[in-house]
Design goal:
The protein is an alpha/beta fold. It has 12 helices and 8 strands. The longest helix is centred in the last third of the chain and has 24 residues, at 232-255. The mean pLDDT is 96.
Length: 280
């Protein structure tokens, strides 16, 4: 295939490197930063830089931009995307993207499916991109008016060739509800946690639990704020839920209620054990 990748940051750059490391597909790169594009060409992550004319030669177009940029790019370049080319975005929200591009692409005969590779790092940009980023990860695909579940499933072998262990076809609503919990809430909690004054003095007093909870506090605030706002209602539901649970722990501590605190801790521990057991 001839594959175009728009945006060569952490996800787009890792996609390019993984494709070149594991397949014989041709990769054409689209990136506004000329230096990044030159590096990607020099390192063999892309075969060449793309332009509008080359868009019309692609079999697959992967768009790895912020949500708003993704919508704008596809709308602006629609006339160059040939029939038969599949467009898949790689954003971390799907309701906004699929709602904006599903009908648009369907009206123009462009095949479009929402996508979200469940992999990442606490670093961003092409420098952080790795060919093995997707090893063992899940690739989520969301059918739209412009791309069926059957079309989504047809790309499973391709994504598995890049290291993905699972390819999950889901809905935009289910995706955003689950991601609010599994990803977005974790980033908010981690980011808030390190705002304690004691964080500055953690050296010598911290171990695995501190490292685990703070890893994703270091984030790209521009990207994550846009992702949060695009999924505001689902994320607010999760935030309100965890705030309610934290208040229960706080109330037990204020009252000196050891039995109540033990019940809360046991309930959380038991749930974690059950979740892990069910996932085996």
């Amino acid at each position: 295939m001839r594959i175009g990748i728009v945006g060569l940051g952490l996800i787009g750059g890792s996609m390019a490197k993984a494709i070149k490391a594991n397949t014989k597909h041709i990769v054409i790169g689209y990136e506004i930063d000329d230096e990044t594009l030159r590096r990607a060409e020099k390192e063999g992550a892309v075969d060449c830089a793309g332009d509008d004319r080359l868009l019309s030669t692609l079999n697959l177009l992967l768009v790895a931009l912020y949500p708003g940029q993704t919508v704008n790019f596809v709308r602006a370049k629609a006339e160059w995307i040939r029939p038969g080319c599949m467009v898949i975005d790689l954003c971390g929200v799907k309701g906004y993207i699929c709602g904006a591009l599903g009908p648009f692409c369907a009206q123009r005969g462009i095949a479009f499916i929402g996508g979200h590779p469940m992999a990442g790092r606490e670093f961003s940009g092409y420098d952080a991109a790795q060919p093995g980023l997707f090893q063992g990860a899940s690739m989520l695909l969301v059918p739209t008016e412009a791309g069926s579940a059957r079309q989504a499933e047809a790309f499973e072998p391709f994504f598995r060739s890049l290291g993905f262990e699972k390819v999950v076809v889901t809905t935009a609503e289910n995706h955003d509800r689950m991601i609010a919990f599994t990803s977005q809430l974790a980033h908010v909690v981690s980011n808030a946690y390190v705002k304690s004054p004691e964080a500055e003095k953690h050296d010598g007093y911290s171990a695995g639990s501190y490292k685990d909870l703070t890893r994703v506090a270091r984030l790209n605030e521009g990207m994550w704020s846009e992702l949060f706002l695009c999924n505001r209602e689902a994320l607010l539901d999760e935030l309100n839920g965890i705030i309610g649970h934290l208040e229960e722990y706080r109330d037990a501590l204020e009252k000196g209620d050891r039995d109540g605190l033990q019940r809360l801790l046991k309930a959380g521990s038991d749930r974690k054990k059950r979740i892990d057991r069910d996932g085996e």
